[in-house]
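Support reply, case 0932

Customer input (verbatim):
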Amino acid sequence: MLSRDDIMAEKMSGAGADELAAALRWLCDMGVDIAVGDSPRNYFAEAQAKAAQAPAAAPAPRTTATPDAAPDGPRSNRVAPRLSPDPLPVRAATPQGAVSPEDALAEARVLAGAATSLDALKESLAGFDGCALKRSATKLAFAQGEASARIAFIGGAPDADDDRSGQVLAGRSGALFDAMLAGIGLDRSRVHVVNLVPWRPAGAKPPTPTEIAICEPFLRRYLELAAPDIVVALGDLPTRAVLGSREPIVRARGKWLELALPGSKIVPAIAMFHPDYLLKAPAAKRYAWADMQALRKALAERGLA
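Our regenerated output:
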């Protein structure tokens, strides 16, 4: 747990009073409200020093999903569209009388493609019965966001609070997410929050590749209709599925990429820890704060702050 002196020492150089106040306010909201130790300790500088001493990572293997890198810059790694209408990754057994995964995917594409607004898309998804997750879930928890919002946060699957309320990022993780937004001057009225899978898997198990593929057309269409200017992947599942990362979230977070959205729009994208993870691993909040500051800077550069 960091003291106020820790934060001040880290942020003092080049930071204005508003930035310092926002940092302290966010940390207080997170419960960092006591000082520990007799003298300040700069954990950020220690982490940076360790990173500088670590050997350089070998270049990632080239794949057909990642085209040639763009010229050097803050978002020099272009990512090919991950949300593409590919065949189902897994052929699941179909019980007699049930709809096959292939037929369910075909129906999902038709319903999603016919929606001409975000509200119409949600209605179409609510009436879609092709995903087995719906039968064990309490409520649909797909997406919230005003049409004018320019940032899209993509989560994985609903948790128990989302399942009970029908909201995305509800309960304690939602309160933490709201505080993170407030720390950089945002609130939910200015962002889209959408799940990769809109129904909670039974027993909180990760959704299967087939379940993700069947729900994917609705996420594709949501992003196409919302046309955000920045995309944020929250947690490991959307970081892999949407950004195409082969690294775990602890290594993938904080790196700016270029993401090709449905409709051929290319936008900057970044991965961050999901609020659920931050509740279980409070020490990771310092990385979340750094990522939110990177997002704030990107918004300012585009006149979206």
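We compared this against your earlier run and they match. Two observations from our side: The beta strands are 78-79, 143-144, 151-155, 191-195, 230-234, 257-260, 266-272. The chain is about 40% helix and 10% strand. Please reopen the case if you see a mismatch on your end.
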